Amino acid sequence: MKINRIITSLLVAGTLASCAPAITVKYDYDPKVNVRQFATYRIEADRQRNADPIVGSNLNQRRIADALDQSLKARGYKPVTQGEADLVVRFFMDSKDKQQIQSNNMYSPYSWWYGGMGNNVYSRQYEENRVVVNVSDARTNDIIWQGWATGQLNNRNKERDRDQAFRETITSIMKNFPESAGQDYGAAR
Length: 189
Known about the structure:
This protein is α/β, with parallel strands linked by helices. The protein has one domain (about 20-100, about 125-189): Double Stranded RNA Binding Domain, CATH 3.30.160.670. The protein is built from four helices and six strands, in the order αββαββββαα. A hairpin with a 5-residue loop joins strand 5 and strand 6 (about 145-150). Helix 2 packs across helix 3. The protein starts with a helix and ends with a helix.
């Protein structure tokens, strides 16, 4: 009877760990904008939305900016430090506390006979993070492309793991951005 409870507990713990929310990436864009006209960019953190002292920390902002810079350079865009850029890439990160509830669904009408394994319900608290990248036309300040990722980004303990997590997340977001400057959305897919 006790072995059944131990096995059930291990199965539930494994199920909860495997059901941890994965990072989900989505994007949207303005199909009316001719992307071929853009070749340069500058990256800015959205200071108002990055107000959280942990998630919006300067350290995380640098991680995101560095990953964005690498991704845009790899696509053929040129960074502009002084003067006018064609694109302004603004980003922010936020978080909220979430709760996941899981049931082992082990109820049986005969459970009283072999140890009372019932339908146990477990809950897990976690922090869900979101990274949003807004790409705007610098002349009009209109967003022409937006990508975002939602999931658990801040759950890594080692600094190197966090750097990698942010890099991978930004790479996933920017995967849907046009491949190189002067290329339209239809050609980027």
